[in-house]
Amino acid sequence: MSRRDRDGVRERARGAGAPVTVTVCRGCCCGTEAKHPGVDHAGQYERLRTAVGPAGRVRAVKCLDVCTQSNVVVVGPSAEGRAAGGRPVWLGFVLMDEMIDDIAAWVRAGGPGLADPPGLLDLQLISVSRRVREGLPE
Questions:
Q1: End-to-end CA gap in the chain
Q2: Which of 21, 85, 101, 103 could disulfide-link to 76, CB 3.0 to 4.6 Å?
């Protein structure tokens, strides 16, 4: 990355604060053919990254420790969304392309704290234990 590109990224980051972060579990259960045969896990991840584009950051982690509700995705608010009261939203059983599209649309609309989840995402909401929530990096 050139210095000019780095400076542009820094400037956008200063102006907008932290973006919406989408954390996709891709470890022992989530994202595996063994647990969810017929689901194109790699394709879904790339579809999400492409659809979110510059509106947010998509990252994969090894395990979110909620294996009974895989595939798990956590949508974290942007700095602006957090200031508006948004908190990370945990979604389980994210297996269909339509769910991926809804997550991306939500991120582009501003994410937690700034926009309501579209479509049927409210049916995918899951609760996780405090032990799991507190054990994850910020």
A1: 26
A2: 21
